[in-house]
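I would like you to sit down with the pair of lines that follows and say whether tokens and residues agree.
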Amino acid sequence: MKTLINNLEGECKIKKDVEELFDRSLDVWSNQGKVDRIWTELHYYGRYTLVARILGEPTKKDEILIIAGCGRGDPFFDDSGYSIIGFDLSIESCKDAKKKIGPRVIQCDMEYIPLKTSCADKITAIYSLVYVPNKLRALSEFERILRCRVQSVLS
């Protein structure tokens, strides 16, 4: 039992460190040079374009797309026709994301997602799963919240 408690405390410390790191890095991302910003936008645009192709158009009205690790909120999926729910570990990122992708942004841990079982149609985790200590737990959560186990795009 003591080992389990020590492991959980260590895992919580890692998550807190990651959250603080992302909160501190927001200023760096906001103030990076013009050349860096252009390269970054092209790089991300290419990745999001590929993800959008894989996901395709919504097949029904109000199809829910989860953006796991939404960061500061990329409005790439704004005109996609999906009903979007984003979440991120960083509270500061969530505040920014709400301005860009709407009010359905929540601060949470990918390993414990506070959404109902089978509530989403598709999920993306772009540049975010790598920061999760227990990836298997996060993937189990993704499986739990997806209505059908087919549509997820992870990178």
Strands lie at 64-68, 83-88, 105-107, 122-125, 152-154. The chain has four helices and five strands. The helical segments are 2-31, 34-55, 91-101, 135-145.
